[in-house]
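Hi Y.,

Following your request, here is the sequence exactly as I used it, all 313 residues.
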Amino acid sequence: MKRFALLLVAALPLAAQVKFSPSAGKIDIEIDGKPFSAFFFGDDAPKPYLHPLRMADGLIVSRHFPMEQVAGETKDHPHHRGLWFTHGDVNKIDFWMNEKSSTPQRTQRGIITAEGTPKVKDGKKRGTIESVHIWKTPEGKPLLREERKMIFHSHPTLRMIDFDVNFVALDTVTWGDTKEGFFAIRLRDELTERKKTGKMISSTGAQTMKEIWGKSFPWVDYSGTAEGKKVGVAILEHPKSFRAPTYWHARDYGLFATNPFGLHDFFNDKTKDGSYKMEPKQSIRFRFRVVLHPEETAQAGIDRLFAEYARTK
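Below is the corresponding structure, written out as tokens. Let me know if you'd prefer a different format.
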């Protein structure tokens, strides 16, 4: 009887290791039985974003502000929300600095709304969230349809998210040349170069903001020490992503972003033009993998992880 019971248990399907708990405007994400993050997409969110980002052991690596108030934490750039996609110039409309509290406001603020309810699928080794977001003018005119797929992976020591995002033009649209964009994470203060514990390292071995800001690389890792632990966050760009390898809007105070559009800022040359025009129904696709890892860049094997990601279809 005991042997039969053991065989029965062995035959049962394994419980999902990536689980989602949807609620109004929010989806909580659990990996390997522990909270990882939440996806915010409701009307009260100026843009869709993930917050917070946790390591496999629960350590938070993203800044809390402006979603939460933590004593001693920096409170600059209130538009830096966890992990997000936006851009500072789409038909001269600002989707990057689109929070009502953002100052100074140089252009009109764009609006991003969810179309319907995101689809979620739990999984043993990975789970997915698929969502659609409409980028609109302040008057509500649709400009872009963002079709987003996020894949969350189960792993003993890493936390990995794949982003596959397709933008479809709903009108004639120009992505303007500005450094204010595009795919970004705001790291907690302790991990930053400005706090002296953090360091950026690129795929070529370039180090620090001085060598990485405004340069083009297929991946960059930003690692440091938080709560006495060596941890890092790497952004890997798939070779088939739009304009790969991207340029980096990565700062010593904790902004960690890719941006394929900001050439005249990055080169400090007004003759450069990184803008991109789309006609209605035209689309562009972006693919990134974010890896939260223990240890520093070399020990984490970011080169190997990038090679594995680059081979995915």
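The helical segments are 2-11, 208-212, 263-266, 297-300, 302-310.

Thanks again,
Q.
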